[in-house]
Amino acid sequence: MTTPPQPDAAPRSDAAPWPATPGPRIEIPPAEQAARAAADPARPRWHITAPWGWLNDPNGLSVWPGPDGEDLIHLFYQHNSRAPVHDLIEWGHQYSADLIHWTDLPVALEPGPDGPDALGCWSGVVVDDVRPDGAHAPTMVYSGAAGRSTQVCCLATAVPGDALLTRWVKDAANPVIDAAPASTGLDLPEMRDHCVWRENGRWYQLMGSGIPGAGADGAQGGAALCFSGEDLRTWTYEGPLAVGDGDVSTTGTVWECPDLLRLPGPGGEVDVLTVSAWHEEATMRSMWMTGRRTGTRMEVDLVGRCDLGENYFYAPQSLALPDGRRIVIGWMQPNAVEARRLAVGWAGSMSIPRQMSIADDGTVRFVPVAEVRSLRTRRLVETDGEGPVRLRGDSLDLVLTGRLERVGDGVVIDLAVSVDGSRRTRLSLERAADPADGARGQGAWTGRLRLDRSASAEPGAPWAGEESAELSGPVPLGPCGEVDLRLLLDRSSLEVFVSGQPLSARLGVDPADQGVVVDAGALADARLEAWEMGESYPAGRLGAAPRACAQP
Ligand code: FRU
Question: What is the mean pLDDT of residues 436-465?
């Protein structure tokens, strides 16, 4: 089975930030990294970051009872505490009671010398392994990296009696799934990452991979390989759940971090597979596929881009909350050269947790969880939007609504505008021509969202981003051109949502450039609101207090 073509994705080829063979090991004392990170004005203040050092994929997103029996959300993440570079990956660990305020815990898992994870504890999940005596054993299912192209599946179990899950013991049976081809009979170029669930008394898991020859026209197609087992230690290969077409500009040749979930849709429950498309060391983008799963096979119907910001929302992992919402967190990659990352002591953040849903047109939509509103500290503006509105700030929640009544009408929001106006980062939303008959999914949307970072910084300025390509794509407008735009700016992290279609990016801007100009002149019944935002971490974690925003 191949996935249908996917609309409107521009080819992108950023190299993955970690080389296959690591260079000399870099080590900076934690206190030094933390001091540098605290002093960096580009570091987000209400997006999840590591206390210092490197951060990539979210892992082990799960809910467990805390010390007083309350629900705590645990987030583990790919982490290097020795330096802000991808090397000898550990699992960092934080928890939250509200998805917004987070507390650091010690590193939960680290590579074991001579073990199957000697070079890294790569991405995975935490599941509830209910033992024969009824005891619940939080269990990590993760990829052990040891220098081979395909990784192996390893387990670690939380030490009982420690409600904050700070101590973990690796399983004596590791690896429980060996590298390919021993585990699958297939000669695979890559294999790693895990999505694990229990169904009808059996465990199932997906691993990300690519199968040579399985895509369109004999291409290598990205694949989610399925395994099943009676327990978490003995697995049988069941074949691929889904295979991509291998298009190097859309679905890629390898899928990382597959995640399978189910959402209510307009016509009943929908199976959703998210994957991160990868090609020749380049982390391309995360994608969703909807369809119907029967056992260990999925028939894919519709495909779309999770985020128009491409790999600025990568390796998403989802979680079903006790209240029924399905949320997802993705990795917002760094956009700084290695020398600058070392100088500032941190690299990478998470996206804001996003609530997932299926819209009436069958597409997957993402909106910031409602709890984000609790971070609003001061209203900066509330207006019906006559003429350009000017404000200042680099920590904003902005909501813009109205109607773009004619094709070609648009709104422009300039961010990080310098005092002399020579530097700015421009977001524009335009009403595009109606789609061709028969267009489906994202291809049928009538809005076009664009982020232009070409004038974000002087070339060569220390804060300039490593890449500044335009990010763009289709977004849904209402039937009469209704616009529902939400913009979250947290220093270098930008997330924009138009009717639930996100565009994320990491900005490389001069921290002094804090002008914001909203030009919604072409928007009928325009309404603009904006708030200054607070912080997600306890006092002291982020260093100095945020700079005050001037009154608009
Ligand atoms: C995705 C990824 C995963 C891997 C991890 C290593 O960003 O490459 O496939 O497990 O990062 O840190």
Answer: 96
Per-residue model confidence as pLDDT tens digits over 399-441: 999 999 999 999 999 999 999 999 999 999 999 999 999 999 9
> Which one-letter amino acid corresponds to residue 413?
I
Kindly state the DSSP code that residue 15 receives in the 8-state scheme: B
Give residue 333 CA to ligand 1 midpoint distance, Å: 12
Q: pLDDT of 323-374, one tens digit each?
A: 999 999 999 999 999 999 999 999 999 999 999 999 999 999 999 999 999 9
For ligand 1, pick from 257, 276, 285 the residue to mutate: most ligand atoms within 8 Å of CB.
257
Pocket mutation for ligand 1, best pick of 76, 88, 192 (most atoms within 8 Å of C-beta): 192
**pLDDT > 70? residue 8:** no
Q: Which residue has the higher pLDDT, 12 or 547?
A: 547
CA gap 505, 277 in Å, rounded: 17
pLDDT-based confidence at residue 45 (cuts at 50, 70, 90): very high
Q: Return the SS3 of 457.
A: coil
SS3 letters for 430-469? EECCCCCCCCCHHHHCCEEEEEECCCCCCCCCCCCCCCCC
Percentage of residues of the chain with pLDDT beyond 70: 94
Q: Answer whether 89 contacts ligand 1 (Cβ < 6 A).
A: yes
The per-residue pLDDT for range 191-206, each reduced to its tens digit, is 999 999 999 999 999 9
What residue's CA is closest to ligand 1, atom 8? 256
Closest ligand 1 atom to Cα of 256: 9
Q: Is 123 in the pocket of ligand 1 (CB under 6 A)?
A: yes
393 and 424 in contact (C-beta within 8 Å)? Answer: no
Give the distance, in angstroms, between the CA of residue 126 and the centroid of all CA atoms in the same chain. Answer: 18
Identify any residues that bridge with 225 across adjacent strands, giving them in sequence order: 207, 240
**Closest ligand 1 atom, CA of 283?**
7
d(CA 381, CA 389): 9
Between the CA of residue 212 and those of 49, 282, 336, what are the distances in Å? 37, 18, 34
d(CA 80, CA 119): 12
Region 281-288: mean pLDDT is 96
75 Cβ below 6 A of ligand 1: no
User: Does the CB atom of residue 190 touch ligand 1 within 6 A?
Assistant: no
**Would you call 492 helix, strand, or coil by DSSP?**
coil
Ligand 1 neighbourhood includes 209 CB (under 6 angstroms): no
| Whole-prediction pTM | 0.95
- Ligand 1: centre distance to CA 100 (Å): 24
